[in-house]
Each structure stands twice: as structure tokens, then as C-alpha cells.
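=== How it folds ===
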Amino acid sequence: MRIIQLFLVIIVTLLFLINLRCSFDEFGKWRKSIYAEKNYLQDIADLKEEWDQLKIEIVKLQTNPLTRERLVRQYGYSKPGEQTYHILRSDSRLLN
């Protein structure tokens, strides 16, 4: 009878330790998921802010002619009949 009680205590202790180990694993997964959720929420907030900036830029491009001209000139375009000048940087090897 004493051996059976000892055997049952050992089994219960092992089951308790296994359950405790699983609980710690689940707790770690829970903490990782909370951290990931915070990161995702921050990413969403950043993307919403970028989206708002892009909407403002779209409105400017659609309504403001100076913004459109600035953008077109960034790509090197000029008005018909307009003279353009390109400033070349001097290369020290060419001067010698």
C-alpha cells in the first residue's frame, strides 16, 4: 500500500511539473503576442500617417500648378522654347 501511495505521489508530481512547464511556455507565447500586437498597432499608425501625407500630396498635385511644375522640373523637363543650362562639375583629372 505504501508503494502505491509513493507511486501516485510521483505521478502527480510529474504531472504538476509538466503542467507548470506548459504554463510557462504559454505565458511566454502570450507575452510575445502582446509585444507583436503593439508593434503591429504602431506600424498601422505609421501607415495611416503616411497615407494622410500622400492624400495631401495628391490634392496638391491635382490643384496646385506650382507643385506640378516643381515635380515636372525635378525630372528635367522644360517648357517649350525655354533654354536650359547644365552646370558640369569640374574633374581634377581633366584640368591636369
Remarks:
- The two ends are 105 Å apart (CA to CA).
